[in-house]
From TrEMBL, chains A, B:
Keywords: DNA-binding, Transcription, Transcription regulation. This is Transcriptional regulator, TetR family. The keyword Protease does not apply. InterPro entries: Homeodomain-like_sf (IPR009057), HTH-type_TetR-like_transc_reg (IPR050109), HTH_TetR (IPR001647), Tet_transcr_reg_TetR-rel_C_sf (IPR036271), TetR_C (IPR011075). Gene3D superfamilies: Homeodomain-like (1.10.10.60), Tetracycline Repressor, domain 2 (1.10.357.10). Residues 33-52 bind DNA. Transmembrane segments: none annotated.
Length: 202, 202
DNA sequence: ACTTATCGCTACAGTTGTGTATCTTACTCC
DNA sequence: GGAGTAAGATACACAACTGTAGCGATAAGT
């Protein structure tokens, strides 16, 4: 903490929101403490207790502040480019500390059921839709067959990105996103041009 | 702890392995303590310290004991049935506490980098291959075009199952696994029979 | 049965975090 | 520039966990 003018109100809250997200990254969900967060934010524990009862509440408040995310609509025109763009937006979103916080809570659902339940509420309102937005749009336009856009297909891109994150621990590079679109999403939609092998078997 | 004959050696270690996995489920990775594990196992803390230096070591030891998993080869004959079976095996594996432990460590990579690194070592030797085994087998047989089995395709099934687990918090039912195969994997491999919509767009 | 390794128990000082109370300091607004 | 409000500092009793030490008690091997 740099010694500046004394913070209060919204500015202070914002600083504490940052602090709890940083703390989460460093110590993990289970070791979040009012003490640690206060220390990191350079303030007194009493200040935290005036607003939140425990680290979980503080964390939820930090997550809630970042929502609803303004999702720039990735619908420009061409299907393939739109899909790639939507995955890039997903990665961008996931890069944000808030996204990691969500991930951390969901991963330890069993250990923190109340926290997970509260989180689900936060999310039901503003769903995360990335490739789904693009697919729905193009299905309505007729670019792709409406019947081929199932819930599973809508989840495909997100699933591959999440899996990569879990396995490797880093975000996927652009090349990987392109491969997801070319090797998986487009073929599933019926576009066989981008993958090896003809439509019917050899 | 039921008061039975005093455990020692391998039996004791096994009990402690169970205890640490149960404890992980209940309190999460960050709140694992020697104290809590010892209490749950009905033994003294000193007994734990005689073998492991901290809860992380104990947990790794518990995970290591469960490996290498004997993966029953899900290759019976027909591609579709084999794929479904391989996903069922994946779900079965993921149901085991050990799998949840792995998941917990990977989810908090940033907070526990040493633990994650040690885990990666454990895994590099015996990789988890479920649908991949089936795909490789059938590619060698010529049932499917070898060129269509890319690393992404091999990961597709696992990714969808993992994503479901994260989003819903429960394991997917059989119906969902069938949909993964019929709506995603088979279409990507070039089999258009199981999904709505013609091969070329309308 | 006798020995030996090891397990369970108790105790201890030290550390960290909790939640509250109290008091001083410094912004903000009129 | 004075009043009111909110932040920061300090102190406290309490609780949980740590890591080590010492001492029976008990299972296993000969």
């Amino acid at each position: 903490m740099v010694a500046g003018p004394r913070r209060r109100g919204a500015a202070l809250v914002k600083a504490l929101h940052s602090a709890v997200l940083e703390e989460l990254d460093e110590v993990g969900l289970g070791r979040l403490t009012m003490d640690g967060i206060a220390r990191r934010a350079g303030t007194a524990r009493t200040t935290l207790y005036r607003r939140w009862a425990n680290p979980g509440e503080l964390l939820l408040s930090a997550i809630g502040e970042a929502y609803p995310v303004e999702e720039p609509s990735p619908v420009a025109g061409e299907l393939r480019a739109d899909l790639i763009r939507s995955l890039e937006l997903l990665v961008e979103w996931a890069r944000h500390p808030t996204a990691r916080a969500v991930q951390a809570i969901l991963a330890e659902r069993r250990a923190h059921p109340e926290l997970a339940a509260r989180l689900d509420e936060l999310f039901d309102a503003s769903g995360r839709r990335f490739t789904a937005t693009v697919l729905d749009h193009h299905a309505r336009l007729g670019t792709i067959a409406p019947g081929s856009v199932t819930p599973l297909v809508e989840n495909l891109g997100e699933a591959m990105v999440v899996k990569h994150w879990i396995d490797v621990g880093r975000e996927p590079d652009r090349e990987y996103l392109v491969q997801i679109v070319d090797q998986l999403i487009l073929p599933v939609l019926g576009d066989r041009s981008a993958v090896a092998g003809p439509c019917a078997g050899p």
